[in-house]
Amino acid sequence: MKRDERQNKGNTMSRSESTVSRRTPHTPLGLPDSVSVDSNPMLSIYRCRAPIASLDCMDDFSTNSALHLFQPASWENMARQSPVYMGNHASIPSSVTPGLHYKSMGKSGLRVPNIGLSLWTMLNEDVAEDLVMTALESGINLIDLSKAHNAQGEAELGRILKKRNVKRSSIIIATKIYWSTKCEERGQSRKHIIESVKESLERLQLEYIDLVLVHKTDPVCPMEELVRTMNGLINEGFVMYWGTARWTPTEIMDAYSKCRTFNCCTPIVEQTEYHMFCREKTELYMPEVYHKIGVGTMVWSALSTDMGLNREGVAEIFAKSRFNRKYSTFSWWEEELVANNELENNESTVAEESLSFKDKLKALSDIANALNCSIRQLSVAWCLKNENINCLLLGATSVEQFKENIHALQIVPQLTPAVILDIEKILANKPQRPPMVSTLTMRNQQIARLDAADGTETPKEDDVEANVSTPEKDEVVRGAIQ
User: Using one digit for the tens of pLDDT, what is the confidence trace for 104-129?
Assistant: First the structure.
C-alpha cells in the first residue's frame, strides 16, 4: 500500500511539473514554491514559429504618438534653452510637427521621418545653421548631403553639429559616392569608395555615416567589388547602411543577388526623382522591388513643378523632364540641359508642350487655391500621399520657405480620393504597365522589321496559319489527289 501511495504521489508531481513547464518560461528555477500554478496562470509557450508583425502596420506606427503621456509641459522652451540637443525621433512629441510620421527605410530597422532635409544648395552659414536647427526642432532628423551639388555642405553640417553640440545618435546623415564624367574622381572602385567615405568623415568630423548612397553604377567596375567594399565599410563601423541612387531595378537586383551570394549587407534604399511629371519608376517598379527584396524609396524634386509659368521656365522643365529613357532620371545638377540647337530644331514641339504644361499648371493652381495652399505645398502633399515612399527630401533657401514646405503635411488629409481623381484628370500621365506580348508575336515583329529593312514582304499571320499542315488538311489533300 505504501509503495502504491508513493507511485501515485510521484505521478501527481510529474503532472504538476509538466503543467508548470508548459505554462512558464524555460528557466532553470521555474516558479517559486509559494506561488500556486492554478491561482497565477502563465501564458502558454508554443513550440511552433512565432507570428511576425506586419511591416505595413509598422510603417503606419508613429513613435511620437505613444509618448504623449510623459512629455514635459514646456517641451519647446526646454528644447530652445537646452545647450545640448537631445531630441530624436523617439523623444520629440508629435505635437511639434503635425502629420510627421516615421517609417522604416525599406525593410530595415532604420526609422526615418517621411520628410528629410536636403542641403544641396550653397547657403549662408547663418541661414544653414538656422535651417538645420529648425529641422531638428521640428522632428526632421534626416539630413541628405551631396558632394557634387554642394561640396561644402558636409563641412558646414559638421561645423553646425559641433557648435550646437547635437547628440550624434539623434540624427541620420546620408551622403553620396559619385560616379560622374565631370568629376576627377571617376569610377566606383574600392579605392574611390573608401577614399570618398574617409574624406566625408573628415569633413563631417564624425566617426561614422548612417547612410551612404552609391550614385549611378560604373560599367567598368565589377558589381562584386562594389558590394564587398560596402560590406567592408559596414563591418569596420564607418557606415551603418548603404543604398543606391539613380540605379535601374535590374542593377539593384544584380547587387542584391551578389550580396546574397557573397554574404554581404544588402542595399536598403534607392534614391530617385519623383514629382507630378516623373512617375513611372517610383510608382510602377520600385514597389515591386520593395516587395521582392525590401529596398525602400527615397525621392527628391517634388518642387520642380513650381518654377514659373513663363515659356523659358516651362521649356527648361521639359528639357529636364525628358523621360524617354526607361528607368532613368535626369539630373540638371550634373548634366547639361538640352543643347540650344536641339531646342531650335524642335521649337514648334516645345511650344505645343509648353502650352499644355501651362494649362496643367493653371488647373493645378486652381485646385491649390481651393485647398487654401500654394502649388508648391500641393506638389509636396501629392508626393507624400504615395504610401510607397519612405522619405521625401525637401530643400530650402530660408527658414520661412522650409516651414512653408513642411506645412504641406497638413494638406495631405485634404487630398481625398475625389481631389486625387481631379489631379489625375489634369495630369493625364498615370503610368501603366505595357501589355503582355507573347514570344511568337515578338518573333514575328522582329522578322517583320528585318524583312522591312531588306525590302521583302512578310507573310501575314493568316497566311502563316494557312500554310501550317494539320491532319485534317492532309486528309483533304489526299482525297483531292485520289
Answer: 999 999 999 999 999 988 788 889 99
Q: How many residues does the chain have?
A: 482
Selection from 453, 141, 116 nearest residue 296 by Cα:
116
Predicted confidence band of residue 471 (pLDDT cuts 50, 70, 90)? low
- Amino acid found at 58: M
Q: Which three cell numbers stand for residue 464?
A: 502563316
What string of DSSP letters covers 221-289?
A: S-HHHHHHHHHHHHHHTSEEEEEEES--HHHHHHHHHHHHHTT-PPP-EEEEE-BTTB-HIIIIIHHHH
Residue 175 and residue 213 in contact, taking contact as beta carbons nearer than 8 Å: yes
> Would you put residue 224 in left (φ > 0), alpha (ψ -120 to 50) or beta?
alpha
Q: Find the mean pLDDT for residues 182-195.
A: 78
In the block, cell 509618448 appears at 67
Bridge-based pairing state of the strands 172-178 and 142-145:
parallel
Q: How far is CA 131 from CA 29, 113, 232, 435, in A?
A: 57, 17, 34, 47
> ∠ CA(92), CA(97), CA(101), 5° rounding?
75
| Helix-helix angle 399-406:125-137, to 10 degrees | 30
Interval 358-370: pLDDT, tens: 888 899 999 999 9
Write out the DSSP string of 366-398. HHHHHTTS-HHHHHHHHHHT-TT-SEEEE--SS
Q: Is 166 helix (H, G, I), strand (E, B) or coil?
A: strand
